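Ticket #4471: structure export looks truncated?
Reporter: QA, pipeline team
Priority: medium

Steps to reproduce: submit the single chain below to the structure queue and open the exported record.
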Amino acid sequence: MVLFLLLVLVAVALGIIGSVAEGLGYLLVIGIVLFVVALAVVIVRGSRRAGRRPLR
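Actual output as written to the record:
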C-alpha cells in the first residue's frame, strides 16, 4: 500500500508540474503513465492475495 501511495503522490506532483510549467508537457504524460502503473500494481497485488486465502 505504501508503494501505491508513493506512486500516486509522485504522479500527482509530476502532473501538476507538467501542466503548470511551460514546455514540460512530457512530465504530465509521465505522471499519467505512472498513475496507470500504480493502479495496475494494486490490481495485481489484490488479485494475488484473493487467490491465496480460502473463504471461511
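Status: closed, not a bug. The export was complete when the record was re-opened. Leaving a note from the reviewer for reference: Helices lie at 2-20, 25-52.
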